[in-house]
């Protein structure tokens, strides 16, 4: 006792080791929010099920069959499998068993339901999980975080979760104390280090526009079954990314689809863009003073270093003006313009537009793309978007220069970082001018030329016309590199088809860049109508949601839909909402059924209502293909759809009384003025 040691063992240290305890205080991971503060990712308390199978313990599973039956009503697991595991635990004399993945991450409501079932032997273990309320929703952009099995800490993987992992995860705290023989804390011995919760990351993403984008991607996936497709919506004036998505994608909540694609295509996927790239060569030629829209050249082909490169129409269109050549998307014209500008000067323009270099985004492994400039043939094919590669974010960034008087805006996705405890804004991003790429006059003239590419004098790309807005932009059809060897893929419609567009054309508010690669279904449509099935509804719904062209400029809010069954149609708020289109079946006053229920509708979505009285055919003009299919399901009718775009014809006239078993044929139009 005097020496405080026995057989060379430090008795003080031995006592401290025996009675001292440390308890970790876990920091909450910061939230990821959209521009309006809606949660895109957050920590959430979840529960894990354990079942005590030791009969010597007072609270144990006494009836495996009854327990399994009640648990199977909540847990996504077969009753027989649950019962089998319980019985195995009993036979093997285990104290408790768990149900694996299916028995984890239960919600509070699931826990409450099982508690009310009063199942003997069931135990709930609280744990934290990362929650993504919207499922498949900007998944590669947001990323995901999961617990490291070795450290027990959440780690970000992909997207914002990975890029801002250090900011989001915070710092764990701890409680150090001594306990006595009976397990109580010895007074005055406790020391607390408070946990520091992670910071909140607010994005520029608008959840409503993102939902429009995800919906459009689903439409494109169904129509084309492509290898890849992507879409991005940006604020034309500031460079803010309002929405971004891709297919294949995954659901971070369920992990469904996870692993099919690791790349965040917006920043990490580089590809040969095709003719959409021509707008930058056009801008350079105008800025250099060598583009005269009324000058005439011979279209069809151009000889380069012993090779003849053809327009997409090998015979060409005869002697046409430069502007007509741009409307026809002539490769020969682009090579002529590059010669006039000078190859080295043109390379400088491309670099000034941001190609061949990263944009300096938040994301790791951002691709720079390549400007293939070593050989004469590479330099010439770059002029029409082949050989050299770009990323979608570079295309958006370059387009902002053309639409903002030559001032190129840096695209950004993070609006602010906020201390979740104090509310102090740690970092705030804002509109940033990267550089003056071309003169203001050249930018305005370039925009004037691009404004003729959709429905201009040569009536090109009419499928991208919208009724309520003037859309401008450039289409592209690029050959795809053969991954198994040199050269490009051979065969019909082996393309990357894309369109980069903006609206309104005179005062652009929104840029949408849309691409689809290697369709396996309806292949010829990639040539005939391009990405119109996805681009048009996305652009139109975005503009309407942003109330572009309307005086008040205030975006309508999502509309909450309750269950109105049995109420009078005049008492249904959604039916009177100007931002919601209501389709009514029936000439009565009482609501018999409606879709959706106990949900919400985004602005300009459709609300289907069935009333009492005679069922009469409503006017479906303007509905999308997806909405027509929804109507058929709601009305119990077999519907056949022809065409793409929006309803412009129906086999049953509006007002006709419907009969059981009637079939409806609907035709869609791309808003082509020749249709």
Automatic annotation (TrEMBL):
SMART domains xrefs: PASTA
Main location: membrane
Domain PASTA: 611-670
Organism superkingdom: Bacteria
Signal peptide residue numbers: none
InterPro entries recorded: Beta-lactam/transpept, Beta-lactam/transpept-like, PASTA_dom, PBP_dimer, PBP_dimer_sf, PCN-bd_Tpept
Keyword hit for Membrane: yes
Entry keywords, A to Z: Membrane
Compartment annotation: Membrane
Family, similarity comment: Belongs to the transpeptidase family.
Protein name: Penicillin-binding protein
Species whose genome carries this gene: Salinicoccus jeotgali
């Amino acid at each position: 006792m005097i020496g405080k040691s026995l057989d060379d063992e430090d008795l003080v240290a031995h006592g401290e080791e025996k009675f001292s305890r440390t308890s970790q205080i876990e920091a909450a991971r910061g939230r990821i929010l959209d521009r309006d503060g809606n949660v895109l990712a957050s920590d959430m308390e979840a529960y894990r099920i354990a079942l005590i199978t030791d009969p010597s313990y007072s609270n144990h599973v006494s009836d495996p069959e009854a327990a399994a039956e009640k648990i199977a009503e909540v847990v996504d697991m077969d009753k027989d499998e649950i019962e089998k595991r319980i019985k195995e635990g009993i036979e093997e004399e285990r104290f408790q068993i768990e149900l694996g993945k299916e028995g984890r991450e239960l919600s509070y409501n699931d826990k409450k339901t099982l508690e009310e079932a009063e199942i003997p032997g069931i135990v709930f273990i609280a744990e934290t999980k990362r929650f993504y309320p919207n499922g498949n929703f900007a998944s590669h952009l947001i990323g995901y975080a999961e617990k490291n099995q070795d450290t027990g800490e959440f780690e970000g993987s992909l997207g914002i979760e990975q890029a801002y992992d250090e900011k989001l995860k915070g710092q764990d705290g701890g409680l150090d104390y001594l306990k006595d023989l009976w397990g109580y804390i010895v007074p005055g011995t406790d020391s607390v280090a408070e946990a520091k919760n992670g910071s909140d990351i607010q994005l520029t993403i608008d959840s409503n526009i993102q939902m429009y984008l995800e919906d459009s991607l689903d439409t494109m996936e169904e129509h084309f079954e492509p290898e890849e497709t992507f879409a991005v919506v940006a604020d034309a004036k500031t460079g803010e990314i309002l929405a971004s998505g891709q297919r294949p994608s995954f659901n971070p909540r369920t992990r469904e689809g996870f692993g099919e694609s690791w790349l965040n295509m917006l920043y990490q996927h580089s590809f040969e863009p095709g003719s959409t790239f021509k707008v930058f060569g056009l801008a350079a030629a105008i800025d250099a003073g060598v583009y005269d829209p009324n000058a005439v050249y011979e279209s069809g082909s151009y000889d380069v270093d012993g090779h003849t490169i053809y327009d997409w129409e090998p015979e060409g269109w005869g002697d046409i003006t430069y502007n007509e050549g741009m409307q026809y998307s002539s490769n020969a014209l682009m090579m002529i313009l590059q010669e006039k500008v000078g190859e080295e000067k043109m390379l400088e323009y491309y670099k000034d537009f941001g190609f061949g270099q990263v944009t300096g985004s938040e994301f790791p492994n951002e691709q720079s793309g390549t400007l293939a400039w070593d050989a004469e043939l590479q330099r010439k094919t770059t002029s029409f978007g082949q050989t050299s590669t770009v990323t979608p974010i570079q295309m958006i960034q370059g387009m902002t220069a053309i639409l903002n008087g030559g001032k190129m805006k840096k695209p950004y996705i993070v609006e602010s970082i906020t201390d979740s405890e104090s509310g102090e804004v740690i970092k705030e991003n804002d509109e940033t001018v990267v550089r003056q790429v071309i003169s203001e006059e050249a930018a305005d003239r370039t925009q004037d030329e691009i404004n003729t590419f959709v429905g201009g004098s040569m009536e090109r790309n009419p499928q991208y016309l919208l009724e309520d807005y003037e859309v401008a932009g450039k289409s592209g059809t690029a050959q795809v590199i053969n991954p198994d060897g040199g050269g490009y893929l051979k065969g019909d419609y082996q393309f990357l088809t894309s369109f980069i567009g903006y609206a309104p054309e005179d005062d652009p508010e929104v840029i949408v860049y849309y691409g689809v690669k290697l369709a396996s279904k309806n292949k010829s449509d990639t040539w005939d109508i391009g990405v119109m099935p996805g681009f048009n509804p996305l652009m139109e719904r975005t503009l309407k949601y942003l109330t572009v062209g309307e005086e008040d400029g205030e975006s309508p809010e999502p509309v909450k839909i309750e269950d109105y069954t049995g109420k009078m149609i005049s008492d249904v708020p959604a039916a009177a909402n100007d931002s919601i289109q209501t389709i009514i079946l029936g000439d009565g006053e009482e609501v018999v059924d409606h879709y959706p229920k106990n949900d919400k509708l985004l602005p300009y979505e459709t609300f289907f209502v069935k009333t009492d009285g005679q069922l009469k055919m409503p006017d479906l003009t303007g509905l999308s293909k997806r909405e027509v299919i929804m109507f058929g399901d709601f009305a119990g009718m077999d519907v056949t759809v022809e065409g793409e775009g929006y309803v412009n014809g129906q086999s049953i006239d509006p007002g006709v009384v419907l009969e059981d078993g009637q079939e409806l044929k609907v035709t869609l139009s791309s808003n082509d003025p020749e249709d």
